[in-house]
Amino acid sequence: MIGGFSLAMFGGHIYVLFIITAIQIISYKEVINIAQVPTKQQNLPLTRSLNWYFLGISMYFLYGESVIYYFKHILLVDKVLLPFTTHHRFISFMMYIFGFVFFVASLKKGHYKFQFTQFAWTHMALYFIVLQAHFMMNNVFEGMIWMFLPSSLVITNDIFAYICGITFGRTQLIKISPKKTVEGFVGAWICTIAFGFIMTNILMRYKYFICPVTDLGANVWTGLDCVPNPVFISHPYQLPSWTGFSRTFWIAPIQGHIMAFATFASLIAPFGGFFASGLKRTFNIKDFGDSIPGHGGMTDRMDCQFIMALFSYMYYQSFIAVYKTSVGSVIESAIVGLTVEEQLEVVRGLSKYLYNQGALTEKVRLPRHIA
What we know:
This protein has 2 domains: 2-328, no CATH class; 338-371, no CATH class. The chain is mainly alpha-helical. It has helices spanning 2-11, 13-33, 38-43, 45-75, 82-86, 88-105, 112-142, 145-168, 182-203, 207-210, 254-267, 270-282, 298-320, 327-337, 340-356; strands at residues 172-174, 177-181, 235-238, 248-251.
């Protein structure tokens, strides 16, 4: 599995997106299945269909939001895709409303409690799995490092929590997961921070990992090119004279931010696992499924990853992202906010500027008025 993911990561962002899509579908299926009652499902065949319908609509909405945001400079200039792009949210809403209407119409006397339980359970699964997996995909678009590094921190923390726990763990951490110890919890935190510093120092040297996605066909061999985010630029740091050391260290801001990522992965993300443990105990099951032989279900391995992905996206957007005007946002503003004549005036102005700069061999000639 590690080898397969590594090949996908180096093969291109599109393959990683496929893997994330597969993970969220499998996890959703596992969570939905544990609350189903086969005998009632036979009498209410539309219930299961609605579960998958709501998944499809949610993915359509969330995927569309991401694609439109990151590739609007392509979608907005396409005649066929333009209506779907500009009305994406309304289309998604109406599709959801159709599902809601079908649910209400399918209510059957004697099965109300089961049907409403399924309806609520479906939306809980959409929130905890599909929505959070959506932010994992956004992290890929912002740069491979924002998906791979948080995921690797969670995995590292899980490994060292086990190692530290069996080595010197004595004090139980939480009753819902009796094998977790305070010593393992703290030891894993320290090891995760150390791993984060080392891995960050490696990944930040390669633009393939730190550049936002502009070409879904790019891979580790073709690479990506961009002006690096200032967070990846190293600055000299001189130790205070009172320390007795005069050495200068070069430190990038990301190496400070990684403290927050590692701390969340160590102290907060595990509670996603505790939540999943409580859920399994509620239904008296050992694993969510058997999709990964020897490990249980996909959800058993991803319970901490989903919440970590959401944190990573929120932290990145709040403290690291550099906001600037993009080609897509300019095109969107012109299409949405200007009349056709005003749009032509913008094109004429730009063509005149580019002609004067030598970027065009002749001016673009456009009609002065639209009939």
